[in-house]
What we know:
Elements: E1 2-5, E2 10-22, E3 25-37, E4 42-51, E5 59-68, E6 74-83, E7 89-100, E8 105-116, E9 120-130, E10 136-142
Antiparallel strand pairs: 1-10, 2-3, 3-4, 5-6, 7-8, 8-9, 9-10
Amino acid sequence: MTLMCSPHQHTSYERSMTLMCSPHQHTSYERSMTLMCSTQHTSYERSMTLMCSPHQHTSYERSMTLMCSPHQHTSYERSMTLMCSPHQHTSYERSMTLKCSPQHTSYEPSMTLKCSPHHTSYERSMTLKCSPHQHTSYERAIDDPEV
C-alpha cells in the first residue's frame, strides 16, 4: 500500500482486523492512522489495541509525530504502552532507523509481537519519505499472523 498526499491534502487511513490465536483465545486488532502533509511538517498518528481472552488483556498504544523543517531538521516523538497478564508471556521487539538528508527523510521501523503459549506474531515494515516539495509517500507491508 502507498499513500501519497500533496502539500494541501489531508490523507486518512483506517483499518481494523481480527487475529485468531486458538479456539479458547480471541485476539482482536484495531488500528487507526492519519497522515497529514503540509509545507512545514508531516505528522503521523497511530493508535492500536490488542486484546486477548477475558483472562488476559494485552494493550498496545502508540502515538508518533514526524516533523520536517525546510532545513531538514527531523524530530521524532513516540509513546508506547504494553500490558500483559502473568499468565501469558508477551515479547515486543522493534528496530527503527531515521535518516535525514537534503532530499528526503526516511523512517524505517520493523516490529514483532509474539504471545505464548498460543503463538501470535505481528510483523510490520514501513517507509516514510519527504521530498523537498513535501511529497509524502507511505508504504507498509504486514505479514499474515501465525496462529
